C-alpha cells in the first residue's frame, strides 16, 4: 500500500531585527523552507507571500519598536503533518527569567462583520437550517462574517486556541508549567471603527485580539510576556523540545551515524557524556568503573545505548552492542546497515573477545539476561556469568536495566543482584537513573497511570481538556473486534499498529497463520510466527513489531519487549482479573515459562510486569481489551474512554 508523502517540518526563524532589516531576504528564506517542507515541493501562494511581506513585517516592526528586536520569530511553524501551520511563534525570555513563547495569528482584514443568519455560509449545520431563528452560542462568539470571502470564518482567537493546543501536543517542553506560553491575534489593517467589536468578543477570554487601533494594548501584552534580550535560547529549546513520534528502530541507523531526530534530555545526556568521558579517558587508576543505567520502559535506555555506541565508533573506539533481548538486538542490527558486526551475541563476546580488548560494551535489556550464556535454547554454559563476560572484556562496560521488566525465572538480574555481581568482580558501580519518559509522546500522565493501574492502586485517567489536552490517547474496547477495527484504520493510514496479548493461549503453530489467540467466541487470530521458514507476507518472530504483515498476527512479550510502534492494542487474558478491589492471578491460564514460578505472589508480579511491558510499547495511543468484565468496568469507572 502506498501512502501520500506528508508535510515535512517547517521551522524557519529569524530575529525581529533581521526581518525588519531585510524583509525580502527573509521572505526568500521562508519560501525555500516552504518548498522543502511541501509534499510536492510546491511554492507558496501569492496570498502567503503577501502576508509575509506585509503582516510579518508589521509584527516584526512592532517588536523592534517595543525594544524586543532580539526575540526569535518562527514563521508558518509546523512540526507534524497533521498540524495546521501557525503564522508566527515568538520565542524569547519572560520578564521573570523563564522561557516564553507566543502563538500569533496575523490577519490582513480591513473590515469584518458580526456573524448573522442572513448569510449562513460557513456556520454550523444547526445555524444553516432555514428554520433557525438565532445563532447558537458557538457561532455567536466563535465565528465572524468575512465579506471578502463571502462566508463566515473562525474568530481569530479560535484559531489561536487551536494553535496553542497543537504546540502543547507536539512539544513536551510545555509540560513544564514554568515555561510561559500565550497566544493572541493581530489584525494590523483593521482600522475601520465599525469593525472594532471583534476585540470585545472573546471565545477564549485568555486570548486577546488586537487591531490597528490598539497599539498600546498590544505593546502591554508583549511587555507582559517578553523581556529585551536574545531569543536564541528559546528558539533552540523549541527546535529540540519536540515530542518524539519517530520509531527508534526506524532511526537506529541515523543515531549510529550521528544525525538522529531524537533529542537527549536531562539524565539521558548526562549518561552519554559520563560514559563517553570514561571511554575517552581510558582505564581509571582505581577499580574498573561499570555504568548501570536504570529506568522504566520508555525512558530512553535503548536510545542512550545506540547513541553511545555511535559516538564511540565515530571516535575510532572499539565498541559493541549486546542485549538480553534477541528481537530488539536483531532489529537494531538490521536497521544499522554496515554495522552488523557491532551487534554480537553474548556467546560471541565470551568466545571471541579477550580481557579488556574492547573500549566499550553496552548491554541493553540486562534484566533479560540469563545467569550464564546459553548453550542451545534450554541449557546454560558452565563458567563465568553473563555479567562477568561483559565486565571482563570491556574497559568501559555499561548495563541498561529495568527490574520491572523481568518476567521469567531465568531472568535473574535485578538491579540489586546486578550491582552485587559487579562489585564481586572487583569493579565500581556508577549508577545513573533515567526518569524522563520519551515513549508515549513523553506523556508523564500515561506513565504514572500505567504504574498505578498495575500496582493495584488505579487512578482516574486524566485526558485533559480543550485548553490542555493529554497528547497520548488511551481507550478501552468491549471486545476484540472493536479493538482490531480501530487499529486497522490506524494501520491503513500508514501508522504502525500492532495487537499484543498476555500468554494465555497455546502456541502450537509456528507459521503465523493458524488462529490460536481466541479471547472471544467470534474472534481469533494467529500468534506471531516462529523464526524458521514462514509464508510470504508473514514476518519472522523477531521482526513481528517492525516487519510488513505484523498487524495480522498477535504479538507476545517475547516479540514486543524492547521495541515500539505508534498504536498498540493489548489483550489482557484470563490470567489476570480485577476482583474485590485487587488484582488476582489465575495460574491455570498462564501458558508461558512463568508457570514455573512457585509462589502466587511472585507469579502475580511476573504477569503484571508482562502487561506493563505490553502497555508501554506505543508512542501515540493504546487500546486495552480485557476478557474480564470487572476489569473493563474498572477502566470505565476510571474515565478511560470506550472506542
Question: Which stretches are low in confidence, meaning pLDDT under 50 for 5 or more residues running?
Answer: none
End-to-end Cα distance: 26 Å
Strand content: 15-25%
Number of strands: 24
Mean pLDDT metric: 91
Largest sheet: 6 strands, mixed
Secondary structure class reads alpha/beta
Give me the side-by-side strand order of the main sheet.
Answer: 1-2-3-4-7-8
Proportion of residues in helical segments: 25-40%
Overall geometric form: globular
Rg, nearest Å: 28 Å
Query: Helical element count?
Result: 21
Using brief descriptors, characterize the structure shown.
alpha/beta; 6-stranded mixed β-sheet; globular
Describe this structure in words.
With 643 residues, this protein is α/β, with parallel strands linked by helices. Helices cover 34% and strands 20% of the residues. The chain has a 6-stranded mixed sheet, sandwiched between helices. A 5-stranded parallel sheet has the order 10-11-14-9-15, with helices on both faces. Strand 2 and strand 3 (86-93) form a beta hairpin. Helix 2 (23-37) packs across helix 3 (46-65), helix 9 packs parallel to helix 11 (301-314) and helix 10 (267-281) runs parallel beside helix 11 (301-314). The protein is globular. The chain starts with 12 loop residues before the first strand and ends in a 6-residue tail after the last helix.
